[in-house]
């Protein structure tokens, strides 16, 4: 889902008449944020920047250091009738520096989070990294080495944080330090998937725009977004990995390689022993999260092994 971001912009921060975001889809990765983005983008009162979908302004220092003028440049085409200005960056929930940065520039912004069973999210994230050519290890080996990898830099934190990203309560509490609870809407992947229209209506109410949940779903019900895939030749994906998101031309070439090398289907079922270990690991965290936001997370503890289709979430 990440795309190359234009870099030809001054670093001067400006106070202008550009309307900046009223709301953000701020995480989590592999939870359905792409679907939610596209659903809301089809609403006549909502504006998202056309490209890139993920701005990564508040989480990537290189982008943040370009200043407010750079950020404003993505929102200048919003029309007056588009009363809800949004942006999507699933990494925002995870990076510790993000809440303070957002609060400084946009203290009244509304934040939407979509949470997925952290065990399933971790496995989906792993296969996403396989797809992109970043991951070369087995899932079990990657979990064993995760803490060491995360200490190696920002890129490793993004690509290999399979388990670490699943501690949602800690991440959301950072936002509660600088935003009020009524500025935060916490959704579950299951709600977005199974009760799509009703969940979109909740989002519309949260954003103070007209309800269009059923209308949006009917218009987009045949669409598929951010589908994953299993590499026919993993080495080919690994060769493309260092070149992803370098330029528009290179991305077009890699896109064609992905089309040829990635087959649609189901990725292998997680090892039951690994699943059981992860479920036990996350059980106290899920209880804390449920209490913190009054969530029903009973579906996450049913221990029903899933064989994931490659229509995945991001």
Task: Describe the structure in your own words.
By secondary structure, the protein is an alpha/beta fold. The chain has one domain: P-loop containing nucleotide triphosphate hydrolases (Rossmann fold). Helices cover 44% and strands 8% of the residues. It has helices spanning 33-41, 61-64, 68-72, 98-105, 118-132, 139-150, 154-160, 168-176, 189-194, 196-207, 213-220, 234-240, 248-261, 272-293, and strands at residues 23-25, 46-47, 84-88, 110-115, 184-188, 230-231, 262-263. It has a five-stranded parallel sheet with strand order 2-3-1-4-5. The chain has a two-stranded antiparallel ribbon with strand order 6-7. Helix 6 packs antiparallel against helix 7 and helix 10 crosses helix 11 (213-220). The longest helix has 22 residues, at 272-293. The chain is globular and about 50 Å long. The chain starts with 22 loop residues before the first strand and ends in a 21-residue tail after the last helix.
**Name of the CATH class:** Alpha Beta
Overall 3D shape: globular
Q: What would you give as the CATH superfamily?
A: P-loop containing nucleotide triphosphate hydrolases
Overall mean confidence score, pLDDT? 86
Summed up, the helix count is 14
Q: Report the biggest beta sheet as strand number plus sense, adding barrel if it closes.
A: 5 strands, parallel
Which second-level CATH architecture applies?
3-Layer(aba) Sandwich
Largest beta sheet: strand ordering: 2-3-1-4-5
Low-confidence stretches: 1-14, 304-312
CATH fold topology: Rossmann fold
